[in-house]
Design goal:
Layout lengths: L5 H16 L7 E7 L16 E11 L2 E7 L1 H32 L11
Antiparallel strand pairs: 1-2, 2-3
Helix pairs in contact: 1-2
The protein binds zinc ion (ZN).
Length: 115
Amino acid sequence: MAEPRAPQRRAQAAIAAELAQIGFALPGSLVSRTTACGKPGCRCQGDPPVLHGPYLTWTRTVNGKTVTRKITEEQRVRFQPWFDNARRLRQLVADLEALSLQASGLEGDDQRQRS
Ligand SMILES: [Zn+2]
């Protein structure tokens, strides 16, 4: 099995250096949503409906379930870098795994499933 080549080592070191610099990282995503409340006579039930919001919602997965909560614009501004960090973290992990797969030389040895 081949040792990682110099460019692969440099790429790994660059990923490791960036990982070491990442600060707090919040999972999930922010989405702006409008909603209908379901109260009879509310403007959101009108014709045409005038929906509530838009509200900023933070959606993430907790124990395999999707959890959503509203956040304020102030919170969004404050935590945007944390969300950005989490996204960057996922990208770096994906890059490191792809690089490692390449460096290992194992990639071509995958056993094919018979169809
Ligand atoms: Zn309503």
